[in-house]
Amino acid sequence: MFKRLLLLGLISGVLAGIAALIYQKVYSSSVGADFSNIAKPVGIMISNVVGCIIAAVGYWILNKWLKEKTEIVFNFIFVILSFASIIPAIGAKLPLDVNSPELFPGLVIPMHFFPALAFFTIEPLFIKISEKTKNIVA
Fold first, then answer.
1. What is each CA distance from 22 to 27, 69, 83, 87, 107, in whole angstroms?
2. Which of 10, 83, 115, 129 is surrounded by the most beta carbons within 10 Å?
3. Is 131 inside any structural domain?
4. How far apart are the C-alpha atoms of 129 and 102, rounded to whole Å?
5. Structural domain contains residue 137
6. Rounded Cα distance, 128 and 10, in Å
7. How many domains does the chain fold into?
8. Are 57 and 29 in contact (CB under 8 A)?
9. Where are the alpha helices (DSSP H) in the chain?
10. Minimal CA–CA distance to 73: which of 84, 86, 59?
11. Using CA atoms, how far apart are residues 10 and 17, in angstroms rounded to an integer?
12. What are φ and ψ of residue 38, in 5° steps?
């Protein structure tokens, strides 16, 4: 189970990172503000992968403790942490030479929800329904 969860975290992180990079390109081209020197593509990718791997480990730990209630508690915690993670993005201090700094939150705030979306979307492919309802010790 742990190996499958790590694979889930890695794959969902990569998918979330790709979605975030696509969103960054679309956002930049549509509003005409390029923040790629602040929200660097490598940083976006790494943060998505690391975030999803941490989520997968958190799922595994919760599963050890909570058994049947793992999914609802995990989903609730993941969503709360996703919302909490936008607070630094709202208060980010940008360099003075950045054009249209008011558009920066519109770029980065939606990206904070991409890891949760990717994780919740592909999670059924990695965790079988029977494993969610029985006691898992693996």
1. 8, 35, 21, 23, 11
2. 115
3. no
4. 44
5. no
6. 18
7. 1
8. no
9. 2-31, 41-66, 70-84, 86-90, 104-111, 114-126, 129-133
10. 59
11. 10
12. -100, -55
User: Two tokens at 119?
Assistant: 């994780």
Task: Residue 62: give the domain boundaries.
Answer: 2-126
Using CB atoms within 10 Å of the CB of residue 28, give its burial: 0 to 12 exposed, 13 to 18 middle, 19+ buried. middle
Residue type at 102 in one-letter notation = E
Length of the chain: 138
